[in-house]
Write a structure and sequence with these properties.
The protein is of the alpha/beta class. The chain folds into three domains: 366 residues, Glycosidases (TIM Barrel); 53 residues, Oligo-1,6-glucosidase, Domain 2 (Oligo-1,6-glucosidase, domain 2), CATH 3.90.400; 75 residues, Immunoglobulin-like (Sandwich). Helix 7 links the parallel strand 7 and strand 8. Bound molecules: 1-deoxynojirimycin (NOJ) and calcium ion.
Amino acid sequence: MTDTVWWKRGTVYQVYPRSFQDTNGDGVGDLPGITARLDHLAWLGVDAVWISPIYPSPMADFGYDVADYCGIDPLFGTLADFDALVAEAHRRKLRVILDFVPNHSAITHPWFTESRASRTSPKRDWYIWRDPGPDGGPPNNWLSNFGGPAWTLDPATGQYYYHAFLKEQPDLNWRNPAVREAMHAVLRFWLERGVDGFRVDVIWHLMKDPAFRDNPVNPDAAPGAPGITRFLQVYSADRPEVFDVIAGMRAVLRGYGERVLIGEIYLPVERLVAYYGPDLTGADLPFNFQLIQTPWRAEAVVDLVARYEAALPPGGWPNWVLGNHDQPRIAARVGEAQARIAAMLLLTLRGTPTLYYGDEIGLGHVPIPPGGARDPWERNEPGHGRDPERTPMQWDDSPRAGFCAGSSAAEPWLPLSEDWATRNVEAQRSDPASMLTLHRRLLALRRDHAALAVGDYRGVPLGVEGVFAYERVLGGEVLRMVLNFGGAARSLPLPDGGWTVLLSTRPGRTGEAARAALALDAAEGVILRRE
Ligand code: NOJ
Ligand code: CA
């Protein structure tokens, strides 16, 4: 198994840096905080840490608006803090993945300042400027992902600039070779500093229709859904020319050995797999968010896994995600009991798992008090904000759950969960029944059983309603997972030989022999090993 590249056999852990560990008492997490908690990640058993943006930023979108691609925002620390983080991570055999945000910069980026200065600025074409439409309004009907139009008029030069997100996040023009070159230099800057890869923000957005045609109306738009869903994003994203751009980034990484390129892509399975690129020249891991978007029913998930496995191009390595800083927490979406089998699913399917910080302690949706919203999306389109899944990590039962250092520390930037005094890492570490212990055991099994990390996948049609059964197979080893998505106990037929329980979401079953049948509790998941 050691001859398989690290990003195929390993597990990625996402840190939202504002919310992981605050060391200077300002209520916001920072780089020294991440370094201080690397031991938690090593103990847990993950292999890589992906850190959401830490670059200098006016923080209109909490760092997804980058004002300098080669620096560190003072809120998070310094370049020296970053170098220390990389060194300490590598010392523990943990890889470091940075968030790369190439689709748009901050409105304060010097490139944009120069670009907007005049129509003849040498950097005018680094961004997307268009004349007003025939009626004097925006050039076309494209909408912002955060609500409202995607075009803002700059009165000084009489043209509109395009922004797929906030007006403070102008889109860069990736058709301009100078932009590509500048961005490749950014990748090299961080690769030289030792980073092991990048998660590329909204990679499917990088190229837009050169004719800027109107997007067609979405006939299936759901009432109450974000405004952007009123149109199908046919011309504003997922354009064929994007694959050339991605291949260019990939080529830069390949010059540095085993570095990984992960792409953020919200598209249906058939389109998603295109992002492995022609002849696998695309993203190593096009993020697969299908588990987040599929109803939590066994039959739907069985079908999803089969469709995804079948759609992968030859040699394309799968991956799975249950949550991130833009999506409701898994424990909130499916409930605490089902979140346990969700963890088992994530960590036993074929492909690289990405685990979101806090999910290992079963953190749920933390309500935000009235007036306390921080996410700009919540202000534009109430109800769609992402604050509830970005709340501070809960480490122990000391004040502020150990998230902020020092007794005079400020309040954390977002609230803790109500049950923080008991839902924290320290309390769960010593509890054999905890979510944290379950995650650690699952991650240990992935390391100890090559079949789980790199083995083949096959569905097992048991014909028991509400139960998903599948196997991971390598050499002579057969591991079978049985996950009860239902709320009732089940007896499963096991006609094919003798099995031993390796792990159950219900503590105390490890080592149990299973012959002919296996009793499953409601919402129980079990990993069996064929004898
Ligand atoms: C996707 C990021 O995950 C999200 O947090 C951000 O707001 C948008 N891209 C814009 O960068
Ligand atoms: Ca801090």
